[in-house]
Description:
By secondary structure, the protein is an alpha/beta fold. The protein folds into two domains: 82-261, no CATH class; 269-407 and 450-554, 3-Layer(aba) Sandwich (Rossmann fold). The chain is 54% helix and 9% strand. The chain has 20 helices and eight strands. It has helices spanning 2-12, 14-17, 28-31, 86-112, 127-145, 152-174, 176-219, 228-261, 291-294, 311-320, 347-360, 375-385, 404-407, 410-422, 427-435, 440-444, 453-480, 493-498, 500-509, 533-554, and strands spanning 269-273, 278-284, 297-301, 327-331, 367-372, 390-396, 486-492, 515-522. It has an eight-stranded mixed beta sheet with strand order 1-2-4-3-5-6-7-8, with helices on both faces. Helix 12 links the parallel strand 5 and strand 6. It is elongated and about 105 Å long. The termini are far apart. The model is unreliable at 1-45 and 61-69 (pLDDT under 50).
Amino acid sequence: MGNTDKDNSKADDPESRDGIANTNGSDDRASEPTDSHSYQHPVSYPREYREPDERTRLLPASTHHGVSGQPPLDIDDPAVSPLNLWSIRFLRYITITFLVVACGWWLVLLITTFVSPQGFHSRGGGWFAFGYTTLAIGILMLLLFSFTIPSRAEEVVQSVIAVLLLVNVIVIVSVPKLREEEGWIGLGSNIFALGVTVWAVCVDRSVEWGKKEEEERLTGRAETRRSLKEWCSVFSALTIMVVYLVIAVLFTGTLSLRAYDHSLEVPGRRVWVEDRNYRVHVYCTPEHTDEKREKVTVFLEGGERAVANGLLDWAQDNYVNGTIGRYCYWDRPGYGFSDVAPSPLSAGMAADALSEALAKVDEKGPFILVAHGIGSIYARIFASRHGKSIKGLMLIDPLHEYYLPNIASAGRGFFMWFRGVISPLGLEVLFNAIFKSRSREDRIFGKSSYLNPKTIKAKLQESLAANTFSRPEVLTSKAILNRKIPLVVVSSGEGVKRDRQWDWAQKEATDLTDNLLYWDIVDKAGHKVWETAEGWKMMSKRVGKLVDVVVKGDE
C-alpha cells in the first residue's frame, strides 16, 4: 500500500506528467535556456489551421460552423464562391475553351465570305452559319460574365433559345434544298450553337448548386438574398439574354420562310457547273410555230435583278406575239433559282459557268444576246468568247466599264457585307411577308429579291471582283469582240439627261462593233426601260428588227 501511494504521488507531480525520465536525477528545468530570444522549433499546424489562400478549402467539408473556435465566414466575404470547387472551375475552363473555338470558327467564316477554300463553300451564301456562330459567341461571353451569379430566369430563356435552335436544325435537315444550300457549314454551326446553349443551361444549374454548397459549408447557411451589385448583374444578363431570344425567334422565322420559298417550282433546269460546286438555273422556251425565227434564240441576261423581275415578261410577250421565235435565260450565280458560286467570282468566271451550263442543256445557238444594266458586262465577255454562235447584241441602258470602280468601292462592299450579316434576322422580309402579303416569287426574283441572302452574297462578290478581275476581263473582251456583230442600244432618257457621264457611257456602248443598227433614247424611261409603255414598244420593235437581220443573214 505504501508503494501505491508513492506511485500516485508521482503521477500527480507535474514533472512526472511530462513523461520524461530523469535518469541522472538532475532537474531538467535547470538546463532550459532562460533567454527570451532563445531558439524555438517551428510549430507544425494541421492543414485546417494554416492561413488560407485562393486554392485552400477554407473550412473542412464535414462542418458547417467553423472549426476549433474559428467562426463561419460572412456571407459577403469574397472567399465564399462556387469557384472554390474544382468541378466548377473545370466547367469555367471548358466554357472558355468553347469560346476560343467559337471565335476561331467565326474568323474562318468571315474569311470564307471573301475567299472560299476547297470544301468551305456554302451555296446559300453562308450568312446563317455566321449568324449562328455569332449567337453562340454571345451566349458564351454572357455565361462567363455572370458565371458566379446564376439566375433561374436566365436559365428559362436559355432553354427556350435551345428549343428554337433545335427547330432550326429540324427545318434544315427536313428540307432537301435548304439542306443543300446550308451544307455542312450551316448545319454544323446551327448544331454548335444549340450545344452551346444547352451547355449554358447545364453550367448555370451546376454553378447554382456549387454556390449553395459553398455558402452552407463556409457560412452555415445558403443565401437567398442578393446584393444590389448582383441584382444589376442579373438584370443586365437577363436583358441581353432576352435580346438573344428575339434573335433566335427571327432566325427561326426567316429560316422557315426560306423553307417555304423552296416549295416554289423551278421553271427550267438547275445544272451543275464548275465540277459540281454549284448549280445554275437555265430556262428555254419550247418550239414555236415560226420555223425561220426558231433558227435564232434570244438569250436574256439580267441586270441588277434576276431576268424574271420584269424583263422576262417583256420577252414572253414578244414570244407569244411571234416577234421572237424562241428565247432562253439564266439566273446568274446567287440570283433567282441559282446557287451562290465560290468566292471570288468575276464576270468572266460567270460567263464560263454559263458556257458550261448551255452545253449541258444542249443549247448551241445561234444567239442574240439581250442584256440589261450590269448584265451587259457579262454579255460582252460571253460574246467575245463565243464569236461564231453570237449573231446579234442588244444592250438595254448598259453599264459601262468606267463605273466598275464605283461598284468596287469599299463603302458599297461593306454595306453589302453588313446587309448579309443581318439578313438571317429577316426584319424587312418577315415584315413584308406578314403585313404586305409578299409572295414566294417576290422574295426569289421580285421586288424583295434584293433582300435574299443569296443575292446579297452575289452582289458582294460582284463588288469584290469588279475592279480587280471583271474590269480587265471586259477590257480584253472589247478588243477581241467580233466587230461585225449587229448592235442595238436602247438607253434611258432620264439617265442620259440626269448625268452627262452616263450619256457619254451610252455613246461609248454604240462603238462596241462596227455594225450599229439603232441607238434609241427613250424619253421619261428609267433604268428599267421596259417599265414605260414607250420603252416596252421600242424594245419590242428593235428586237424584232434584230431577229429579222440575223434570219436574213443566215438565208
